[in-house]
Amino acid sequence: MNRFQNLDITKFLPHRKPFLMVDDVLSIDDEHVATSFKIESSCIFNDNGYFNEVGLVENAAQTCSAIVGKSYFEDDDIEGKGTKLIGFISAIKKVTIKECPKVNTTIISKANLKSRFDTDAYSICTLECIISQDNKELVSCEMNLVIQELK
């Protein structure tokens, strides 16, 4: 059984509906994460029946932040009570959007950590993300994030 099946992602991301673009963490470790997101018709990034480019980039950023954000929590803290985090996209190095997915479909996003620099106050990281639907690549991107623990 997937230990993340009942994980409430809102305990680990500061986003809330309507701006939450990740439903489930499918797998995660110190360098990789996979998430899923069902695109509902009520989604704020619904653009004439398609999940638009801005929504795709935000989904990638929220997926990517889970890798570094995970390190701020104890492994057994599945309730997200150990800390509160805030994150920012500091740079989008590249993004290739091949296709926007339709509303009422599910996308899978997989991210890999390329580099990470930690200070006492924050972490800066570079990540790559691929978003797909039915094993068809929709988006590839590379971005920098800044993750900071709120004291």
Automatic annotation (TrEMBL):
SUPFAM superfamilies: Thioesterase/thiol ester dehydrase-isomerase
Source lineage: Bacteria, Pseudomonadati, Bacteroidota, Flavobacteriia, Flavobacteriales
Xref: InterPro entries: ApeP-like_dehydratase, HotDog_dom_sf
Domain of life of the source: Bacteria
Gene3D superfamilies: Hotdog Thioesterase
Name the record gives this protein: Flexirubin biosynthesis protein
Pfam families, per database record: ApeP-like
